[in-house]
């Protein structure tokens, strides 16, 4: 029996398992995914799957990274603003392309090699913008929280023009208490998700630039640096 299992493990490549796992997850979603179903599709024992991936969590992390590898993330440039937009657009495209897989990117700080490539671009961009490392670390994670959240909201149907029933509900709100909400009804009826995403990204980038401009001059905070200049 052990000999047969060993031959089965050698007979299937890890990449083959991952390809099948991604296809199953992308079509059936997490509720329809299991190690047992995957093993049946690949034609191996479930333990063979766990021989290549030590746990279901490790496999799910690999599925998320596999999905990201299918989206082009341009290389870093000398324009930090464009680099942030390029990474943001890549993740938004990923959500549109694989909506059932996308939520896995919320589960892990990083899904693997492809995720680290994108985060390196983001961290380099924020440092290039002039932020301190503590700011770059925090805003780097905030950047992903915004981009992933926006893209997930799109896949769930939140960022779309409101319909007739939603308009009726808003029109029924008290005109004085909800003055701004009612005033925005025409804009909500014609909401453009692409424009909203661009506006949100530009606001984030403007905020980074403003934060960098108001960053204290580190040399002026260092007494030794000041003394050495005399």
Put the structure in a nutshell.
With about 230 residues, the protein is mainly alpha-helical. The protein is about 70% helix and about 0% strand.
List keywords for this structure.
14 helices; flat; 230 residues; single chain; mainly alpha; Tetracycline Repressor, domain 2
Secondary-structure map:
Elements: H1 2-11, H2 14-28, H3 35-42, H4 46-52, H5 56-69, H6 80-97, H7 99-102, H8 113-128, H9 133-155, H10 164-171, H11 179-183, H12 185-189, H13 193-213, H14 223-228
Helix pairs in contact: 2-3, 2-5, 3-4, 6-8, 6-9, 8-9, 9-13
Can you give a write-up of this model?
The protein has 230 residues and is mostly helical. The chain has 2 domains: 2-54, Orthogonal Bundle (Arc Repressor Mutant, subunit A), CATH 1.10.10; 72-215, Tetracycline Repressor, domain 2 (Orthogonal Bundle). Helix content is 70%, strand content 0%. It has helices at 2-11, 14-28, 35-42, 46-52, 56-69, 80-97, 99-102, 113-128, 133-155, 164-171, 179-183, 185-189, 193-213, 223-228. The longest helix has 23 residues, at 133-155. It is flat, with a radius of gyration of 24 Å. The termini are far apart. Mean pLDDT is 89; it is low at 1-10 and 219-230.
